[in-house]
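Sequence only, no structure available. Ideas?
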Amino acid sequence: MASEVRPSMTSNSDTGLPRCARSDGISGLLFKVCVRYLAGFGKLAMMACRRRLLRWSAASPTERLPMLYASLKLAHILSIIVWIGGMVFAHFFLRPATISLDPPQRVRLMYDTLRRFFNAVSVAVLVILASGLWMIGHVAKQVVQGGGSFAMPLGWTLMASLGILMMLIFAHIRFALFKRLSRAVQASDWAAGALALASIRTWVAVNLGLGVLIVVVTLLV
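Reply:
I predicted one. Tokens follow.
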């Protein structure tokens, strides 16, 4: 009777440990290292936030404006990272990985993922719009109070125009195309769901291109 072959449990002559055990040990070690680094960075972030709050409470109204500007700029940039990074992940990594699934599984998985992502992007869009308008208004007010005449730089104008276009495209995706996908999933109409996903993919690719263009314009213009 032939012996059963178990490749995953073969041992190394040097260590005498099964491969699966060595793999689990390495994974556990990496996990512990990551947790310690994240805990350390978390403590540093909490300390930085505490110092900033103390500075904020002790600062005068005039001194608080630069701090508020920096905080809003941070929220602005993080929201853009969430939006563009999510589109990159969904378009180049998630969608290709679901092609091998059966249509019901693939459409439902994409629906559940996009629903969560679009909810996050809705919040990000509001943060981007509110923080962007406030920062532009703040700079314009400073220039006018200094006796000058405010004119938006070319880079800012392009960034704002393309950003508004991205928001309009996202509104079309979220409130038209995604509703079409939602109705298809509820009706178990997987063919209609696949068509809705194809339309969403096209417009997400357009928005992703615009987002990358905004980053290029911001850095180079």
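Residues 1-15 have pLDDT under 50 and may be disordered.
Hope that gets you unstuck.
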